[in-house]
Amino acid sequence: MSFGSEGSRETDAWLRRLDPSIQRQHVAFRTGDDAAAAALQTRLASAVVGIRVVLAGPEADVYACRALALTMGAVDEELVLLMTPDGSRRVHCPHCQSTTATDQPVGEVVVCMGCHRNLVIYHHFSRRTATYLGYMVDAEEPAKEDAA
After folding, report:
1. pTM for the complete prediction?
2. How far apart are the C-alpha atoms of 114 and 107, rounded to whole Å?
């Protein structure tokens, strides 16, 4: 399963290295959206032992589908992850439990889509939720009071 044109190219290159007698199916999506997740669920529901699932594309899409595959019973040995240079990632806010998509790199600040706090994108990555942890950038500073 690939996401975007670069993910599709990575998948095709990986598949060309396989023995031609190995059965394969390449399903391409623009992003790892709900349609991609549903397609992955459908295919994994009828999968047998020995399947290999290749997920190629931007980090956020690949890791989100990887998390889904693991919840469906896949194991790491069955998964091949091919990341493309797209810098998108998902950040978990521990304050409101929202997930914010961003192109900012680890260590930078992003505004939470849920509670609007400024979150530093921490290097801790949850493979279960496919998100980086965000923490409030100024959590230890005293609250500023409005001038009356």
Report:
1. 0.74
2. 20
Cα separation, 138 vs 49, whole angstroms: 49
Q: Are 73 and 44 in contact (CB under 8 A)?
A: yes
- Compute the distance between CA of residue 17 and CA of residue 24 in angstroms, rounded to an integer: 12
- Measured between alpha carbons, how far is 81 from 89 in angstroms, rounded to an integer? 15
- In the numeric block, the tokens 């998509």 are attached to 101
DSSP code string of 31-42: SSSHHHHHHHHH
pLDDT bin (cut points 50, 70, 90) of residue 80 is: very high
**Per the structure block, which two tokens stand in for 109?**
């600040």
**How far apart, in whole angstroms, are the C-alpha atoms of residue 30 and residue 24?**
20
Burial 76-86 (b: 16+ CB within 10 A, else e): eebbeebbbeb
Residues 119, 121, 124: CA angle, nearest 5 degrees: 125
Q: For residue 2, count CB atoms less than 10 angstroms from its CB and return exposed for 0-12, middle for 13-18, buried for 19 or more.
A: buried
pLDDT of res. 23: 86
Q: Which residues of 22-37 are buried (b: 16+ CB within 10 A; e: fewer)?
A: eeeeeebbebbeeebb
